[in-house]
Amino acid sequence: DAGVIQSPRHEVTEMGQEVTLRCKPISGHDYLFWYRQTMMRGLELLIYFNNNVPIDDSGMPEDRFSAKMPNASFSTLKIQPSEPRDSAVYFCASSPHTQGNEQFFGPGTRLTVL
Amino acid sequence: KQEVTQIPAALSVPEGENLVLNCSFTDSAIYNLQWFRQDPGKGLTSLLLIQSSQREQTSGRLNASLDKSSGRSTLYIAASQPGDSATYLCAVWGFGNEKLTFGTGTRLTIIP
Fold it and tell me: Per the CB 3.0–4.6 Å rule, which of A44, A57, A98, B78 could disulfide with B61?
């Protein structure tokens, strides 16, 4: 398996623009997680899905952020409108079906909002 | 609320030395604890996973221990090499939480 795949790897946009980050989890993994990493706050969980259903979105910073998982092999994280404080590295991770299993991370998307 | 702490934030040691990285957590109700490595500008690589019922796990030169009752874990690296230079993060998966809570990491530099 190719591991967790994220695209794009780098994104530079201007404030107010819509940004869409994409993730393909490892095949057969039932859990999918979106994280954000910044120097100030470290790694924070934004939202996670179990079998394509959002379970906990309490980490989503505000209504400008939304995430979807239309099928088992694809998820998106959208920011609209984007702001400079959204600049961070966004990671997607997946985990097998059993609760508490090892998480496998993608390479991340480095987002810069000017 | 679970809090995970890693001390020190940064560590430099000469090549060849053995070293220990520390991780502490406030709530002992966990499924497991996971150690990750992160290279600059890269994603996280899982190193070791310790289930709550286990005391330690080993992989090559790495050994991770878990003392759930005291809320502590250590990552032992034997015979350190320059290639071990990276940031090491620990994370715990808590009961009723279904998510990982990460520490802030220890940035390790191995001096050739």
Answer: B78
Looking at beta carbons, which residues of chain B come within 8 Å of A91? 43-44
Show which residues on chain B lie within 8 Å of chain A, measured between beta carbons.
31-32, 34, 36, 41-46, 49, 51, 89, 91, 93, 98-105
Place of tokens 């289930």: B51
pLDDT at residue A1, as a whole number: 65
Cα–Cα separations (whole angstroms), residue B58 to B75, B77, B112 = 10, 10, 25
Q: Tokens for B48?
A: 């070791």
- Amino acid identity for residue A5 in this structure: I
**Is A33's CB within 8 Å of B100's CB?**
yes
Min Cα distance A43 → chain B (Å) is 6
Interface check for A33 against chain B (CB to CB < 8 A): the answer is yes
Give the other-Cβ count within 10 Å of A7's Cβ. Answer: 13
Which phi and psi (to 5°) does residue B66 adopt?
A: -140, 125
- Whether the pLDDT of residue B98 is over 80: the answer is no
What confidence tens digit (pLDDT) does each residue in B19-76 have? Answer: 999 999 999 989 899 999 999 888 899 999 999 999 999 999 999 999 999 999 999 9
Tokens representing residue A93 in the block: 């991770």
SS3 A85: helix
Least confident residue range of A91-95, B11-15, B27-31: B27-31
Q: Tell me: pLDDT of A98 over 70.
A: no
Mutant choice from B42, B53, B98 vs A, greatest count of A C-beta within 10 A = B98
